[in-house]
Specification:
The protein is an all-alpha fold. The chain is 52% helix and 3% strand. It has one domain.
Length: 142
């Protein structure tokens, strides 16, 4: 009977392990260029776009540009609009090697520090947020 008690947890662990990556197969972003590497130097383009959109909309909220009769009706509406605008600049077609995580952090810091008196209608107004800085340069062929 004591062997049986020890075998049950291992059997359950084996069953759980078989199911562990089924959700990964259904995730369309898993094979996207620029996904995070072991070093953490790269980010998926969609992840970077989402983080920038959220950062910009948090700033818009702090600058009183979100709400009834404001530039954006809600935070979610702001994020949706920002994502649509940025996909053209930071999508896989423009940044096929992905987004540099360090440069993204610098961009987000600049967004947070930007005064409400300065319009932030275009992300390129902030030097750290230009695609030339954010996009990972492709490695030369060897």
């Amino acid at each position: 009977m004591s062997r049986f008690v020890y075998v049950i947890p291992f059997a359950l662990l084996a069953l759980a392990s078989c199911n562990r990556d089924r959700t990964d197969r259904s995730n369309p972003l898993v094979n996207e260029p620029g996904t995070t590497t072991v070093t953490g130097a790269l980010l998926a383009n969609t992840t970077a776009v989402s983080r920038i959109a959220d950062g910009r909309c948090t700033r818009e909220l702090a600058c009183n540009n979100v709400g009834v009769e404001k530039r954006y009706a809600t935070h979610d509406a702001c994020v949706q609009q920002m994502r649509q605008d940025m996909v053209e600049d930071l999508g896989v077609a423009q940044c096929p090697a992905g987004i540099d995580a360090k440069e993204l952090d610098e961009c987000l810091s600049e967004i947070r520090a930007e005064s409400c008196n300065n319009p932030l209608d275009k992300l390129e107004r902030l030097a750290a947020c230009r695609s030339s800085d954010l996009c990972v340069k492709s490695a030369p062929n060897r």
